[in-house]
Amino acid sequence: MQNFTYNIPTIINFGIDQLSHLADLRESGDRVLYVYGGGSIKANGLYDRSMKILRDAGLEVYELAGIEPNPRIQTIREGVNICRSKMVDMVLAVGGGSVIDSAKVIAAGACYDGDPWDLVIKPELISECLPIYTVLTIAATGSEMDTFAVISDLTKNEKWGTWSDFFAPRMSILDPTLTYSVPRRQTSAGVADIMSHTLENYFNNEKGAYLQARLAEGILKTLINYGPIALEQPDNYEARANLMWCSSLAINGLLSCGASVGWGVHPMEHELSAFYDITHGEGLAILTPHFLEFALNKDNVWKYVEYAKNVFGITEGTEMEIARDAIRATKDFFKRMRLPSTLSELGIDDEYFDIMAEKAAAGCFGTFVELTKDDIISIFRASL
Questions:
Q1: C-alpha to C-alpha distance for 298 and 306, rounded to whole angstroms
Q2: Which of 132, 154, 190, 299 falls between 20 and 30 A from 326, CA-CA?
Q3: 109 found inside a domain
Q4: Which one of 135, 159, 178 terminates a domain?
C-alpha cells in the first residue's frame, strides 16, 4: 500500500428528517445563493420546505434555477454574477450532482476576478471558495462528499473535470426519502455512475491495497443487490438509503487511498456528453464493459478473477474464462437495470470518434492499462 493523506471535512447528516440542519447555514453568514435544477423540487414540496427553514433561520435567499443535467458554464457565470452583486456568503445546492458541481464552481468563481471557465481548465487557479452546502436528491455522482466538479461548454463541445480541496462541501444533507420520486431512468443511470466510480478505483495494479479492494467489492455488491429493488420499489427506504451512501463512499477518496488510480472510462464518456449531451450514467454503462474487455490481459487477469469471485461468485473455469464471465455479468447487470448497451441506442455514430478519442486520451493518464487515441477509438467502435 502506498503513502497517502486523507481528509474529507464534510459533515454528513444522514437519514429521515435531516432537512432541519439547513438552519446550520446561519453560521456561515446571512446571504445564501440557492441553486437548483428543474421543477422537481417544487413538485415534491422540497423547495417550499427548505425555503421555510432558511427564512425562519433569518437567511436572505437568492435563487439560481435551471441547472442543466450536464451543467453549462453559461449558467455558472449567472450564479457568479449573483454572488458578486448580492455579496452572497455561501452557496446551497439542492439537487443531484450537476447542481452540486455547479455550486462548487460558482462558489470558487465568486472569489476569482476572472472568468469561471478558467477554474475549470486550470484548477490550480482556485485559491479560495465560498462555503458550500448541499441537499442531495439523487444517488449518483458523489459530489456531496468529494472535491470534484464537471462542467461543460457545449458551444465548444467541451466537458472537463476540475478539482480543489476548497470544493469539499461544508455540510451535506442525505435524506433517502428525497430520492423516492427519482424516475426509473435516472435511478438506473445513477447506479451505473456509482458503479463506474467504484470500478475506476477498483481496477488498479496495486496488489497491496487489500482493504480498499474489499471496500470497493462491498459497494459493488450493495449496488447489485439494491439497484433492482429501487427500480421496482422506488419508496423502499432500505434500498434508497444504501444506494445513497454508496454514492458518497465510491468517490470520496476512501477507495483510492494507497493505490495509483487513473480513470479511463470517464474521460471517454465526457467526450460523448460534450458532443451529444447524453445522460452521463448511461454512457458509462455502455463503455465500461468494453473498456474491461479491451484492458484484459495475462498480466492483470488476477484483478478480474478477484472481481469475478468476490462480487459475482464466479469460480468455475480458467482465469481467462472467469474474467470474461465477470465482464458478461457486468453487462447483464446493466441490462437488468434497463440501461442502454450500445451507443447507437443514444443516436451516436462514429462521426466524431477521431476528435473525441484525441481529447479523451489526454485525460487517460496512469490508468489500469495505457490508452492511446487508437485504443479509445477501438473501444468507441466496439460500443456502437
A1: 14
A2: 190
A3: yes
A4: 178
What was the pLDDT predicted at 273? 93
Residues 6+ apart with CB under 8 A from 126: 108, 112, 119, 162, 164, 166, 167
- Count of Cβ atoms closer than 10 Å to residue 128 Cβ: 11
Helical H runs in the chain? 40-43, 46-56, 73-86, 97-109, 117-121, 184-202, 210-232, 237-249, 265-276, 280-295, 301-307, 319-336, 353-361, 373-382
DSSP state of 126: -
Q: What CATH number does residue 16 fall under?
A: 3.40.50.1970
Enter the C-alpha cell of residue 371: 490508452
Q: Give the residue from 316, 347, 317, 311 showing the smallest Cα distance to 330.
A: 311
Residue 154: pLDDT band by 50, 70, 90 thresholds?
A: confident
Tell me the C-alpha distance between 39 and 22, whole Å.
Answer: 20
Which cell numbers hold the place of 233? 420499489
Residue 3 cell numbers, joined: 503513502
What is the domain range of residue 107? 11-178
Q: What is the pLDDT of residues 346-384, one digit of tens each?
A: 999 999 999 999 999 987 766 788 899 999 999 999 999
Distance CA(269)–CA(136), nearest Å, equals: 23
pTM over 0.90: yes
